[in-house]
Specification:
Pfam families: DUF4192 (PF13830)
Helix content: 40-55%
Protein name: DUF4192 domain-containing protein
InterPro entries: DUF4192
Organism: Actinomadura rudentiformis
Structural class: alpha+beta
Largest sheet: 6 strands, mixed
Strand content: 5-15%
Order of helices and strands: HEEHEHEEEHHHHHHHHHHH
Shape: elongated
Length: 334
């Protein structure tokens, strides 16, 4: 399996070429902030443009970058000069006040870019400088190392959309069978505690047998068992934080197949894996799916706060083992 490697940025065109791969899509009407020279490698964040309060947006950016100890910043504004200039000007003032060094600020159009720091007409002509990221070394390196850049954010969102047509019909029928299987337990005169214990036992067995090619019935039953926080948290501690691509692929596929009432837990597990990989764009979209499925789902709100606060993915690592998790839930086998 390929491991994604950091992209090396040495010029404005390198930065423009890197952004779609850092975000997972080609941005439009956006301010992209690339922070580096800190203890947490490179950070890329995106804000919609225009911003109703450019200074407030800049203050939020500064708070995130300073609390994570970044020292240098690239600013790239995508859109018209009227939309880009105010927020870049505010960001410049606020970030420099917080002792952050802005190494370059650019406005990026469809096929041209303008430096917002250079006043040399020979170096940076008023009509801008042309670029073609498809011919850059950065784009080639990104592709070889496993980075993907879709055309826009909507395309990225569609990679998480529920499957339709016959696959959806099949999953709906499988979910009906899974729900009937669960409801049959209530007809066995079991106590709620006994039903929950049986659900956890079945869920842990399902997690131990996960493969990329689960049947519809296995996916549906996994969704039912993930309604148990014990099972969901077991799945969480099994996410490979150091190399999460396999988990991203798996939970993305589950999220697309599973019926919507059961989508919140798989969506959160995808968000955890995506954020561990440094893919905040995918993590946010996964959390959108989680909150669409269940607006009150507490883990989705917790993870959203983590992402919004810019907490480094390394700090999301759970040190628990299955044994310590079992003890925490007081259901360790005796």
């Amino acid at each position: 399996m390929k491991t994604k490697t950091p992209l090396v940025i040495r010029s404005p065109q390198d930065a423009i070429a890197a952004v779609p791969y850092l975000l997972g899509f080609h941005p439009a009407d956006s301010l992209v902030v690339i922070a580096y020279d800190g203890p947490h490698n490179t950070c890329a964040m995106r804000l919609d443009l225009p911003q109703p309060d450019a200074r407030a947006a800049a203050e939020r950016i500064a708070a995130l970058l300073t609390q994570n100890e970044f020292r240098q910043v690239l600013l790239l504004g995508y859109g018209t000069n009227d939309d880009v200039a105010p927020v870049v000007a505010a960001a410049w003032e606020v970030l420099t006040a917080h002792k952050l060094q802005i190494t370059e600020a650019l406005r990026v159009g469809k096929d041209r870019w303008w430096s917002l720091t250079c006043v040399d007409g020979d170096c940076c002509p008023p009509e801008g400088r042309p670029y073609d990221i498809s011919t850059t070394v950065v784009a080639a390196q990104a592709t070889l190392s496993g980075h993907v850049a879709l055309d826009n954010r909507a395309d990225l969102a569609r990679t998480l959309s529920p499957l339709e047509g016959e696959p959806r019909k099949a999953m709906r029928e499988a979910t009906d069978r899974a729900e009937e299987r669960f409801l049959s337990w209530t007809r066995e005169a079991l106590t709620p505690a006994e039903i929950q214990s049986r659900l956890v036992t079945s869920g842990l067995a399902a997690l131990s047998a996960l493969t990329p090619d689960l049947t519809d019935d296995e996916v549906a039953w996994l969704g039912v068992t993930l309604t148990s926080m014990r099972v969901r948290d077991e799945a969480w501690i099994r996410v490979d934080i150091d190399d999460p691509q396999r988990d991203i692929d798996f939970w993305r596929a589950i999220l697309r197949r599973i019926e919507e009432p059961y989508a919140a837990a798989p969506a959160c597990l995808l968000a955890i894996a995506a954020y561990a990989a440094g893919d905040g764009g995918l993590a946010n979209l996964a959390l959108d799916r989680a909150q669409d499925a269940d607006p009150t789902y507490s883990l989705a709100h917790l993870l959203r706060a983590v992402v919004d606060a810019g907490i480094p993915p390394s700090q999301m690592r759970l040190t628990m083992t299955p044994e310590t998790l079992a003890t925490a839930y007081e259901d360790k086998p005796r």
